[in-house]
DNA sequence: TCCGAACATTAGCCTCATCTAACCCCATCT
DNA sequence: AGATGGGGTTAGATGAGGCTAATGTTCGGA
């Protein structure tokens, strides 16, 4: 094996997928483990082991003694590039092609690998250089600082508070559709009416309507106390 | 080997590329040979041999005794689908994202594999169901009849004729840029002033300007005598 | 009639990305 | 202490898609 050099690995779609997923897990403060990555990429754990070995050899990820996975500077730069394309595409699909916010994640998963730099710039410019995608996720700039900033989950807010939605996890398209139909999207302000104990729902008021959101839903909605 | 069934092959990007190239060569009336396909797909001839074997086994292409390659009904349907996405994307990139007609072929080569049916329909609808792409190539309908209709090349038109440009081959982006800068694009009407012999240029008049087009250029421009 | 060029195919090898089955390490519970 | 189980990894296989080098095959020209 020769000296570590990030350019020795092909920028295949698989590599981009793994990098984006690692970036996503890390950004949410979740443990970045072999099995977590396997689940997100939808492959078996040994497949991840093999890929991580290659990513490590190409200096894109680093691993501590305790199996801890993190992106190197190089790795993070690439991951942010893929994430930027992903989120720009999502925004584009909603704003220009009229798709709904629950449809775009799957589409963007494929398109993010097919967008050239030139195209990325055109899309960015047609959209007026957006800072956030339809789920409220911040779009990393082409170069420069970027923070993922996952704020408080709705599930952790006490009753009686007003809560401004900032981000909604884009993973679960059924959840997105459900929430969207009830007006729960970035920018919306909810009133947290009450919280049932023992994994029960959170009652929220959106405008005049009340909704009971189960723990799964309450966890995908993030924001701040307004 | 089991009975031939078109669905036994994965619809990978490579398969789509080969099908589209075979469709393109056949549509232009060019010989569809192993080496012609190899050149168009940018791979070595043995790679094409191997792929053709698979395509034949999946009933997507048929081959005569004399090595003649043709698409089956199934193969043609798939090829037309890929071609439709390719040309819709090209049109979209020009009309919505403001790319130039010499840039879009390369981009579409990647994007054509990443467009879902849903997305294809949205693009089609946003563009108002276009019938031709920016190079004048007809966009195959989602289903139904389609003809490729490569009419007369400019190189075969006698001096003294007026010539209406219908299609310009999208392969060579340098040629496209050169022609575009001189106003030679689908819809333009040229006057064929004179033809130099021995592979010399064709002199054409576009509006008030004259241009000498070498045999390569004169061959990529197709149309009809006006 | 024979020879060489052009073209297709076979043979043999490689990488990427995936799988299942088996194994190992370590923490925990009995 | 020993059994149990969860995660990670190794081993070994597979299929897609690509390569080069060698081997037909066929056809036109000398």
TrEMBL record, chains A, B:
Q: Which UniProt keywords apply?
A: Activator, Cytoplasm, DNA-binding, Iron, Manganese, Repressor, Transcription, Transcription regulation
Q: Which InterPro entries match?
A: DtxR_MntR_Metal-Reg (IPR050536), Fe-transptr_FeoA-like (IPR007167), Fe_dep_repressor (IPR001367), Fe_dep_repressor_sf (IPR036421), FeoA_core_dom (IPR038157), HTH_CRP (IPR012318), HTH_DTXR (IPR022687), Iron_dep_repressor (IPR022689)
Question: In which compartments does the protein localize?
Answer: Cytoplasm
Q: Where is the HTH dtxR-type domain?
A: 1-72
Sample GO molecular function, one term: DNA binding
Q: Which organism is it from?
A: Kribbella caucasensis
Q: Indicate what this protein is called per its UniProt record.
A: Manganese transport regulator
Q: Which domain of life does this protein belong to?
A: Bacteria
Subunit structure as annotated in this protein's UniProt entry: Homodimer.
* SUPFAM superfamilies, per the entry: C-terminal domain of transcriptional repressors, Iron-dependent repressor protein, dimerization domain, Winged helix' DNA-binding domain
Q: Which residues form a coiled coil?
A: none
Q: Which family does it belong to?
A: Belongs to the DtxR/MntR family.
Its GO CC terms are: cytoplasm
Q: Does the keyword Transcription apply?
A: yes
């Amino acid at each position: 094996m020769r000296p570590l050099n990030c350019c020795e690995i092909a920028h295949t779609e698989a590599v981009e997928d793994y990098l984006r997923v690692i970036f996503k897990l890390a950004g949410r403060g979740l443990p970045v483990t072999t099995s977590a990555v396997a689940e997100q990429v939808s492959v078996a754990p040994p497949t991840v082991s093999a890929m991580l070995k290659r990513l490590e050899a190409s200096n894109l990820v680093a691993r501590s003694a305790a199996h801890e996975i993190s992106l190197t500077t190089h790795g993070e730069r690439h991951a942010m590039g893929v994430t930027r394309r992903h989120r720009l595409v999502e925004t584009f699909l909603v704003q220009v092609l009229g798709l709904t916010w629950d449809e775009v994640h799957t589409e963007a998963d494929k398109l993010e690998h097919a967008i050239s730099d030139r195209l990325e710039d055109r899309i960015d410019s047609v959209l007026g250089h957006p800072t956030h995608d339809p789920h409220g996720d911040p779009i990393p700039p082409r170069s420069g600082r970027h923070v993922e900033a996952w704020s408080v989950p709705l599930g952790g807010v006490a009753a009686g508070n007003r809560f401004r939605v900032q981000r909604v996890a884009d993973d679960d398209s059924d959840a997105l559709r459900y929430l969207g139909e009830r007006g729960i999207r970035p920018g919306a302000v909810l009133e947290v009416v009450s919280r049932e104990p023992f994994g029960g729902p959170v009652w929220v008021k959106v405008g005049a309507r009340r909704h009971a959101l189960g723990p799964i839903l309450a966890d995908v909605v993030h924001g701040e106390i307004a």
